[in-house]
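User: I want to check something. If I give you two sequences, will you return the structure for each one separately, not as a complex?

Assistant: Yes, each is folded on its own. Here is the first sequence with its structure:
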Amino acid sequence: MENYDFSRNTHYTVAAFIIFENKILLLNQKKSPYWLLPGGHIEDDELPQDAIYREVFEETGLTINLIQKPDTKAKTEIVTPLPLPHHIQLVPCRDKRDVTFVFTALSSNNKIILDKESIDYHWFSKQELLELTDFKGKKLGPNTKYYGPKIIDEQ
């Protein structure tokens, strides 16, 4: 990623709960002990919604549709509303911290093309998210286990 200053103490990132047929996509990335949502850093001069579309495509090959839509009633001559994330979270990450804009999105298919950061993927059902603490030797994080079933129910 050429357009990002990794020396910063606070990084701004995006992630997405991607839904297909009532299941949520998680990635097994080489560098993490957890199954992760697709996502990554917001590059300099990039908007959060542009970053999530880019990151998801780079990591999975998927083209997604965000569930959150901008509030068009708030548009003025000088203000353009952006899609609101499902939630925003602060995550400690090694020697820094990530402020992550977490979106929800729909995919029209489940055909994944992994990038070099990931070694596996799985579409998790609500039941799996509720019952499993780990899968194939990697943990399911508490936020994924908390939000995932709720997001599936919202569909």
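And separately, the second sequence with its own structure:
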Amino acid sequence: MPETIQLQLPVRLYLRLVQTAQATQRPLEEIILHALTVGSPPDWDDIPDAFQADIAALDRLDDNTLWSVARSQKPTADLERYDELLERHREQHLTDAERRELAELRQESDRFMLCKAQASALLKWRASASATMDRSLYLER
């Protein structure tokens, strides 16, 4: 027989769990039980400040949108321009404007890859949550 406890959670953790429940359309209690069983959703504390808002926003996305983020690819033209600027940088032939452009492209590439990685981690965690919850429902019958 399950036991009931009263627990005070930090607001930030509570909000992440609520957002996950909303995004997965699962009851908050199931999400909390899953977090206690296998750990919480992937955190973003170690992410540089410049990217935290983008990474945090992923918690609120549904699975289909997360799959779109995880599968997304940079446009070929962006990759080619980045490679071109890197080569010019190695040869030390960049103008000031090109240096700024390279820095912007690098930051955008970092943001892109961090979002893809976090989306993949969230999908993995959510799939584990679904499997655990589905299994527990089966065992309760």
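Because they were folded independently, the notes below concern the second chain alone. The mean pLDDT is 86. Residues 11-79+115-140 form one domain.
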